[in-house]
Amino acid sequence: MEFRKATWEYWGENAYWGLLAMFWYRSRLFRSLSWLTLRQSRILLWVVFVLLMLGGVLLTMDHARNGYSTLITVLGVFEVYTFLSYFRSFPVVYAVTLLAAAFLGCLVFFRERSVQRRRRFPQLVFPILHSRTVVTLVCAATLVPLALGLLLGDSLIHNPEQAVPRKQTPYGGIAEHIDRLGDLRPEVWNTLSSAEKAGVLQVAANIEREYLGLPHELNVVVTLSTEQTLAYYNDSNHLISLNIEMFDDSTAEESLDSVCHECFHAYQARLCDLYDTVDPAYADLLPFADVPRYQWENDHYIDGEDDLLAYYVQTCEVRAREYARNRVQEYYYLINAVYDGVPG
Fold first, then answer.
1. What's the rounded Cα separation, in Å, for the pair 272 and 56?
2. Domain locations in the chain?
3. How far is CA 178 from CA 37, 107, 197, 221, 341, in A?
4. What share of the chain is helix, strand, coil (3-state, %, to 5)?
5. 319-to-17, 96, 131, 156, 160 alpha-carbon distances in Å
6. Listing from the earlier edge strand, what are the strands of the sheet with 219-223?
7. pLDDT in tens, 46-93
């Protein structure tokens, strides 16, 4: 590798691209570690960033002062933190990647070391640099699922189950899908991958869409979010987004409750649409009793981070909690009746 940069230019280039990558990573892919608080996770990210960037620059300063080395250094920083924070979501991909990187890295190191010994060149720096490059490029696979999730859709994790729109053939209710819903039993749920959990919840969302009579599908996705809640609903694209920060550690009942809660928000939105077109003579019918309040709250919605109590007592949230609680009881009543032989 040849020298391409002056010393000051090389330091500046690493600092510039490193900080730019840090800004992007913090805003799009950062995730706190399960055993640390959010603040501690952010501190750890900066510690990893400073140590690996500094180590990478010092390692390459005298032998590979070029843009390619900068790329490898920057990639390595975020691969390490990504491995720590996302391993639980992609255990197979990350384990295979780590083993492959270790094997190829050792292979390259000993091969380069053997070549240098034959040339009577005792320095270890080039074998280390070459193996570092191979390991970093192989470990780039840890970023692939996240990058594809951001580029190709709204979800970080592929949901194996499809959202079902309204069809002439009914999708069915809880009883018709009891085989899949059996995965909501705690002893089964805790053995599932994140993708498998998302698939079960998509089945539940399809059931809720049918039960509530919604004219559109409901898509369950797993995302990164700054929201301090397990799930939230976006009516513009009919997405029920599960926050990966909380999803991996949530119980089956908490996850099902959140999905049912968000499904009812979709139902509330359709009631509001209908209310605007209904004949005034029918506007006071019981199904529309809460709709004027829903519409007002949509225009003056209070987020839980701004005022938790005011958020909690909003009519739209009260009704959604009531609905979700009752539906979760129905799900587990049938699940327990089928699998345990007794009502839940």
1. 57
2. 7-152, 175-339
3. 37, 50, 15, 22, 14
4. 65, 5, 30
5. 49, 46, 59, 30, 31
6. 219-223, 239-243, 231-234
7. 999 999 999 999 999 888 888 889 999 999 999 999 998 888 777 888
